[in-house]
Design goal:
By secondary structure, this protein is of the alpha+beta class. It is 23% helix and 32% strand. Strands 5-6-7-8-9-10 form a 6-stranded antiparallel β-barrel. Strands 1-2-3 form a 3-stranded antiparallel beta sheet, with no helix packed on it. Strand 2 and strand 3 form a beta hairpin. The model has no long low-confidence stretch (mean pLDDT 83).
Amino acid sequence: PQLRLCDGELLCKPNGKRALREVHFQQGTLDGACGVYSFLMALGILGVFEPRNITVDRMKDLPAKEQGFVREWHKHGLYRKGLYGEEIKGLLESHYRSRIQVDYVEKENKTEEFLQTVLDSLEGGSPCILGISNRRRKLGHWVLSVGYQYDSDTDLLGFLILDPGVSSPKMMLWNGMLNLVSDGSKCEYLTIDSHPEDILTVEIEDAIIISRKSKTR
C-alpha cells in the first residue's frame, strides 16, 4: 500500500485497487472510539474495507461481504467506550479471518524484542496499531503506526503515526510521532496539534499487527 499527499489530502492506493481512497479519519467523523478508528484506517490502507461504509444508512447499498461487519458496529454503537487489544483481534478475525492475519503482541518486559516486531510489521508493508498510555494522566489511546525513523547511526528514533484524536495531516504522511527516549521503554508523544508545553511522555504497551493474507488458488 502506498500513502501519498494530493492537494493537501492524505490518500492511499491499496494493493489490487485502482482508485485512491481517504486514509485518515479524525474522531467525530465516523463517531466511534480510537480503537475503531485505528483499525478502520488499517483496513482501508490494506484495501480490505472502505471506512466510510460505516456511515452508510441502508445495508443494501453495501457489498454483501461488508454488511455483517457494519451491522455489528451499529449494534454496539461503534464501541464508543473503547476496546482492548484482544477484543479488536477477535472482532476482526470474526469477520475477516480469510483475508487478514491479526496478531496481538504485549510488550511486557521485552522492549527490544517488541520494538523489532513492530518494525518487521512496518517493513513488511503492514500498518501497526499501537496502544499507548500514561498512567499518571490516566491516558489510554490507540494510534496507527505507518512508518519509523532512524538516525545516521541506524538507531531507531521512533514511529510515525496517524492519530485519530487529532487533525488530519496536510503536509506530511503522518500527523504524529512517538519519539523513543532513554532505553526505548518510553516515548515522547507529539502531534501536529501539540504545543511545546503539551509534550507528554507515554509508554507503548501493546501492538495489533494486521496483514493481508496472500490469495490462494
